[in-house]
Amino acid sequence: MRELPLRLRERFGPADRRAVAILVALPILLDVPWALAGRPILDGDNLTQNYPLRVLTGELLRHGRLPLWNPDIWSGAPLLAGWNAGAMFPGTWLFAILPGVAAWEVNMVGAAILAGVGMHLLLRRIGCTPLASLLGSLTFTYTGFMSGQSAHIGLFEGTAFAPWMLLAIDWLVRSRATRFSDTALPVALLGVSSGLVVLAGDPRAISNDAIAVGVYLIACCVRTERARRRPPQVGEPATLPSISAWRLVGSVLAAAVLAAAVACVQWLPGLSYLHQSQRAVGSLAAFGAGSLHFGDLGYLFVPFLYGGNGNYHMPVFAGSYNLPELTYGTGLLPLVALFVLTVMAFRHRAPGVTVWLVTFLVGAVLSAGTNTPLGHLLVHLPLYGGERLQNRNSGVSDLALSVLLAIFVDLLEQRLPSRREREQSILPTPRRGEDPVGAAAPGHLGELGIAERAAGLLAPAVAVALVVAMYVAPVATERWLGAGSLSTALPVEMTPYYVVVL
Q1: Which of 211, 173, 233 minimizes the C-alpha distance to 378?
Q2: Cβ contact 139:401 at 8 Å
Q3: With a threshold of 0.85, does the pTM exceed it?
Q4: Looking at 223-297, which runs of residues are DSSP E strands?
């Protein structure tokens, strides 16, 4: 069996151009028509907080004033230091020159394009095919965490930079740097992207991106040191040594200094303000808000198991927590990829996958917050311990699931016979003694063993079991899911959705 893709495909072809065109056009087609019709997609915190603060920032800038203070609430309140306005984020400056709704749409569409194109470039960089990269990019941008947290523009924009930061790390690893100029561009990309995450104004986006980058950086350091110490194989072509782990860490620290310089206008007053607010009084109860429990895993397999947002006549979600915070399911296929690739990694048949499995696990454990012993330790960490809504760590897991999906699809593409092989497979079987030219290649998908196939069935089996449980024991299942109210009639109301799931 061929190894999973670790090769580098830097050259873009027509398939990549089509993929990027889709990733650029799709958010425009999804968002702009609603705005032109006078119904921009604005709800939740975006409607009551984020949009008004950005409009205010635009008005202040338009009148030649720095967006430092909000005079319109109480006796005045910090605007820049309050983070939520994203007052120094470049996208927010558009509110000074464009109508409010137009500037909002440019920001939302731009963040979706940034996330999609960045993920596509990252996946192509690690060796996935254009199709696999496109599917991974669409999964990351339009499902799960990014979909649910689009109601918080700062978190949405900040998370969109995560693929670019990982791309910069991978660029550094593969640069085989011998001079400073070899690392200047990836260091600049990492530093500027990190700084813009801070300017986007959501601390959770900062911590999520830092966690993903930290896990990937550690994995790259381990991999580069192993590669440098591995003796050359007989017949292996001579290549330049890759960047050392120490030089990689040094480059990342240089990027961190650049990020701090770019974002100091936000984090210096922001941290000062936070130390004077109720957030400075760190408590286990505040830190543990939003911590996921075991029953919340059900929403990973069937996202709207206990109701939705009222669209398509679906009952309104009546759980104990609000629906966007529980919208972290990316669909069944990424879970199939997770389970199959986990089995392959344990059998040492999936090199390069472990880092993404670990990233998923880290995000999942952190999402559980104080429901694990680790949460009682993390609350004491500076900065991180002051953050609430631990469920938002699921952004780390969803990023990993999107990458695993792309790797899995790429694996299947490798296993599928090519057009030439399909044409050859219909040729007559050669007689004994004849040269078997044109004989069909051995089975491709058959190379996935029984364990991998069984693992691939696990996710859909759990989804079916959850739907069946809702009919057989609705009250017990709803209680296990942590529902705020129990209803025996819910499965009947949800039947059209359950049919789609099945």
Answers
A1: 211
A2: yes
A3: yes
A4: none
Tokens of 130: 């254009």
> For 160-171, what is each residue's pLDDT tens digit?
999 999 999 999
- Distance, first Cα to last Cα, the chain: 33
Give the CA angle between residues 269, 273, 274 to the nearest 5°. Answer: 120
Bridge partner residues of 308 (DSSP): 316
Asked whether the beta carbons of 377 and 421 are under 8 A apart, the reply is: no
177: CB partners within 8 A, 6+ apart: 183, 243, 247, 251
The three-state (H, E, C) secondary structure of 234-248, written as one string: CCCCCCCCCCCHHHH
Cβ contact 167:122 at 8 Å: yes
Q: Taking each helix axis as running N to C, give the angle between helix 100-125 and helix 51-62, from 0 to 180 degrees, rounded to the nearest 10.
A: 110
CA 40/CA 104 separation, integer angstroms: 9
d(CA 50, CA 46): 5
- Classify the C-alpha dihedral 140-252-109-410 as positive or negative: negative
pLDDT in tens, 235-284: 544 444 567 888 889 999 999 999 999 999 998 998 888 777 665 556 78
- Give residue-wise pLDDT tens across range 2-59: 333 334 445 678 999 999 999 999 999 999 999 998 889 888 899 999 999 999 999 9
Ranges assigned E (strand) in 29-138: 69-70, 77-78
